[in-house]
Amino acid sequence: MPFDGMVISAVVTELKEKIINGKIDKIYQTEMDEINILIRCFKEKYKLLISASSNHPRIHLTKGDKENPQVPPMFCMLLRKHLQGGKIVDIRQKEFERIIMIDVESYDELGCISIKQLVIEIMGKHSNIILLDKSKKIKILDSIKRISADINRYREILPGKPYIAPPTHGKENPLNLNVNSLILLFEKATLGTPVYKAIYTSIQGISPLAAKEICFRANICDDEPISNLSYNHYKILWTELKNFIGSTFTPNIIISKDDKHIVDFYSVILKSYEAIYDFTIFNSISNVLEEYYIKKDLFNRLKQKSTDLRKLVTNTITKLYSKKQKLQEELITATKSQKYKIFGELLTAYLHLIKKGDTEIEVVNFYDANGNTVKIPLDTKLTPAQNAQNYFKKYTKSKNAIKEKQYQLQETDYEIKYFENLLHDIENASNLTDLEEIRNELIEEGYIKKKKNLVSNKKNTINKPLSFISSDGFQILVGKNNKQNDQLTLKTASKKDFWFHTKDIPGSHVIVICNNREIPERTILEAAEIAAFHSKGKMSSNVPVDYTQVKNVKKPSGAKPGMVIYENYKTVYITPRKNITEILDKNKSKSN
């Protein structure tokens, strides 16, 4: 997340356009390290979010709402005292650093105009929001994070202390550089230092990502040691640096071409990324940041909420596979029981040859085609007839064990299939409700204990399935978990609609709503592709997908959620395209 000088510059430009001369109406501290400022400017209302979070520090306009604490923290009360009702008279970036300064004109206790300054330092875990009194030699009034001398002797951030800006570490403002000063700056670095590292460690506000972009634009390998640079290289590098920081802002979110997940964001288009990523362009850097952090927050919460579910399901699958292996070994042992029957019959035939105290007897095996002999162990505590009966009992017991082991293996395979489907659903959950439905299912099936204080809500509705429109205008519905699959196949779909599912691969139930129309070949292939895409085989080629009319799909009595049997089906083999959902999504707008 390169919240660097370029992004800060874009944010400052936007804030100047929208909230300069605005009046501060209200201030809330929604988190321990986050404030929201409500601003009125030329009849428009804005909300400015400022976060000093160690993980996601940022500043941008927002439309989001958060619950405000009933009792505002002390820092919030101080901000209200000095800034509420004030007028924003200036917003600027400190040189090219990740620091924004907002000047607010307000009246003090004596009714005199005074200037208070809100300093926002976007510095990773050292991020802070600091309120200064500019009329008193830039004295600190307070900060959202207080820093004592015990933590930082160079720079105390405490009420009453003078404000000292973060150290520059010898970095220069890129706006003040020319070719010769760039050369002098790089001469301070170690000769073997790669070009891109020399850029971001020597120049203010340039992130490693931006440094690599500048090298790309200059057609210089970013790992090239600076000792290999000629004067002409420096000239090109300085030109591209100047062009880069002077670029017209094109706020964008960077998206993976493969699975379309959000990779990053930036304030200009990164040419070095054009061949490997897609870009979604916005007209506002605040909209980019809002979208990015909402998705990031959702991703983190989904990851956090799904961890215990994923662990439970994967552990259960591991145990089931171990159980299956043990059952298979026991079945192999049990299938050797035929010899017990032979031993019993041979002993019965040769009873007269067995002497008291014999531990074994060797007799001709008349079941052997070659007439070979076989040694039969004997229990000296039993009579010859009892030894024969003992082998018949072992045979009967083993024969019964075979049936039991085969049944247990069938049940274990069934459970493995069920839990692999659950794991697929967990990994593809797109919101917290999807995960909650899976959790409730595991509670109902007895795999998770229900919390005593949890109030049951039987009126809970099942989340809506995904919906697409085929190229022929047929609606395609996709279940996102077992409960939705059951609802979709057994209740929503009519008997003449078509049902699709990957063959022997965990995945979603897919329904094509026919409305008494004949389903075209193209729609069959598109629905099959959607089924393959929403399965564990989405990254594979030639994925087998079975399809049949819903009337041929049945749920056995006592079957687990999402588990069905079907007959009279056909199979197609599909290689799902990575953008199939986007292609079919476009059909929605055509049909509207």
UniProtKB/TrEMBL annotation:
Residues 465-563 form the NFACT RNA-binding domain. Associates with stalled 50S ribosomal subunits. Binds to RqcP. One of its GO terms (molecular function) is rRNA binding. It comes from Crassaminicella thermophila. SUPFAM superfamilies: S13-like H2TH domain. GO terms for cellular component: RQC complex. GO terms for biological process: rescue of stalled ribosome. This is Rqc2 homolog RqcH. Keywords: Protein biosynthesis, RNA-binding, rRNA-binding, tRNA-binding. InterPro entries: NFACT_RNA-bd (IPR008532), Ribosomal_uS13-like_H2TH (IPR010979), RQC_Subunit_NEMF (IPR051608), RqcH_bacterial (IPR043682). Key component of the ribosome quality control system (RQC), a ribosome-associated complex that mediates the extraction of incompletely synthesized nascent chains from stalled ribosomes and their subsequent degradation. RqcH recruits Ala-charged tRNA, and with RqcP directs the elongation of stalled nascent chains on 50S ribosomal subunits, leading to non-templated C-terminal alanine extensions (Ala tail). The Ala tail promotes nascent chain degradation. May add between 1 and at least 8 Ala residues. Binds to stalled 50S ribosomal subunits. HAMAP family: RqcH_B (MF_00844_B).
